């Protein structure tokens, strides 16, 4: 029988005394999901199964916030990493695998010529921005989407606290970002080409940075129009593939839409949970890295390159993207059917490999979201209102998840009708956005 995750809750309360915010990644804060109830920590993980500190086993549909596309502890990737550890992770000399990975990445993206590495998405985005500014001699960035924690990105909220509200995380404060960066990062909305056109008329840009897509598909040749604007105004087009990359195509999502950037940034899923990131680009642009200073000891360790090589090779051999699309479609179809049967108000966004759903109950939405997560956790699922499909998710998991979701949808329907959503919650409502923890 599943127990209350007492050990995880206790450890998290201790963590907040030693770690600002409690966790290293904002998206893993328990308050965002199920305050005072979330397991918070895992003892082990395999495939889509996760065990908490109390020994409870769950099916995890979030793939570590999308980082483990193959699933947890993939045996092929792990074996490659173990072999590399036995050979030695680092030395005064460079590891040959970084050259092999560069060849593989540029072969998958024939428009690109050169590669620089990092070990996280935020680092890689900072590298891409530095290279673009070095190449063009310009400072300003037009951006669309979520691109991490760096000064260049948060600088947008120096001009207006609401500039980033439409780019995944509202409420991000630019504390600690130099005021001198005000006006250097300019947001535009996805599929709103007129907003980007307005920006380029008023500003000379170092780069246009955007996610090729997240939950919306491009309309009216949006990506091609952005590419044309970047070319016309001699600015660098950078695609942030950190979240969507490797899900829609073997390589970047931009390959599906046949629109090539000047640089593309990868992290997260490219190495199935091991720290690794890459910036790929055209030679004329990438060589600008030589005219500035971009360097780190950690970028030379062996495990990231080895994990990425093993992950990408398995994706190719196993046709992982086909599986992600198939399983995602099964999820969406079954969840829509369950929602219709329960007669609840719900909408879906995104593509099969990465999608979200939203309850449409106005001011009650966040309470309903919390109730959904609470009831799914009782049934053995690490679940929020969306799924990051992984290769380890199989038909049996789809059936179990959707059966549980149908039960929870029925609970939600009755709770809303009787105005009892709050009474069914065993703790506070989950936080809606970024909030400082004290």
Automatic annotation (TrEMBL):
Q: Which UniProt keywords apply?
A: Aminotransferase, Pyridoxal phosphate, Transferase
- Give the family, as the similarity comment puts it: Belongs to the class-III pyridoxal-phosphate-dependent aminotransferase family.
UniProt cofactor(s): pyridoxal 5'-phosphate
Give the matching Pfam families: Aminotran_3
The upper taxonomy is:
Bacteria, Candidatus Kueneniibacteriota
Native species: Candidatus Kuenenbacteria bacterium CG2_30_39_24
The molecular function terms of the Gene Ontology recorded here are: pyridoxal phosphate binding; transaminase activity
Check the record and name the InterPro entries matching this protein. Aminotrans_3, PyrdxlP-dep_Trfase, PyrdxlP-dep_Trfase_major, PyrdxlP-dep_Trfase_small
What is the protein name given in its UniProt record? Aminotransferase class III
């Amino acid at each position: 029988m599943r127990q209350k995750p007492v050990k995880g809750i206790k450890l998290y309360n201790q963590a907040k005394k030693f770690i600002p915010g409690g966790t290293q990644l904002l998206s893993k804060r328990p308050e965002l999901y199920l305050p005072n109830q979330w397991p918070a920590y895992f003892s082990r993980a395999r495939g889509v199964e996760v065990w908490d500190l109390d020994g409870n086993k769950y099916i995890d549909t979030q793939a570590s916030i999308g980082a483990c596309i193959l699933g947890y502890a993939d045996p092929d990737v792990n074996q490659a990493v173990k072999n590399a550890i036995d050979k030695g992770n680092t030395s005064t000399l460079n590891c040959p695998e970084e050259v092999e990975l560069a060849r593989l990445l540029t072969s998958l993206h024939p428009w690109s010529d050169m590669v620089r590495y990092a070990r996280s998405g935020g680092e890689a985005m900072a590298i891409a921005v530095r290279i673009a500014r070095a190449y063009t001699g310009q400072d300003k960035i037009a951006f669309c989407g979520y691109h991490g924690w760096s000064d260049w990105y948060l600088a947008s909220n120096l001009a207006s606290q609401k500039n980033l509200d439409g780019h995944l995380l509202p409420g991000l404060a630019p504390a600690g970002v130099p005021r001198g960066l005000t006006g250097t990062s300019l947001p535009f909305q996805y599929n709103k080409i007129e907003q980007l056109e307005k920006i380029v008329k008023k500003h000379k840009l170092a780069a246009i940075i955007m996610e090729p897509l997240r939950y919306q598909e491009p309309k009216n040749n949006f990506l091609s129009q952005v590419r044309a604007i970047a070319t016309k105004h001699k600015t660098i087009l950078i695609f942030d593939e950190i979240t969507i990359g490797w899900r829609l195509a073997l390589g970047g999502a931009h390959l599906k839409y046949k629109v090539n950037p000047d640089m593309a940034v990868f992290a997260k899923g490219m190495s199935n949970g091991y720290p690794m990131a890459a910036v790929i680009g055209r030679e004329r642009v990438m060589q600008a890295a030589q005219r500035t200073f971009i360097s780190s000891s950690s970028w030379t360790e062996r495990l990231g390159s080895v994990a990425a090589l093993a992950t990408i090779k398995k994706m190719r051999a196993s046709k992982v993207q086909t599986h992600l699309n198939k399983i995602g479609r099964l999820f969406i179809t079954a969840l829509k059917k369950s929602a219709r049967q329960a007669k609840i108000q719900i909408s879906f966004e995104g593509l099969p490999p990465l999608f979200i759903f939203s309850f449409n109950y106005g001011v009650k939405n966040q309470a309903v979201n919390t109730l959904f997560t609470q009831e799914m956790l009782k049934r053995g699922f690490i679940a929020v209102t969306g799924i990051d499909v992984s290769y380890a998710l199989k038909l049996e998991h789809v059936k179990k998840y959707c059966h549980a979701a149908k039960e929870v949808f029925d609970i939600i329907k009755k709770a809303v009708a009787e105005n009892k959503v709050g009474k069914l919650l065993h703790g506070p409502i989950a936080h809606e956005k970024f909030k400082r923890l004290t």
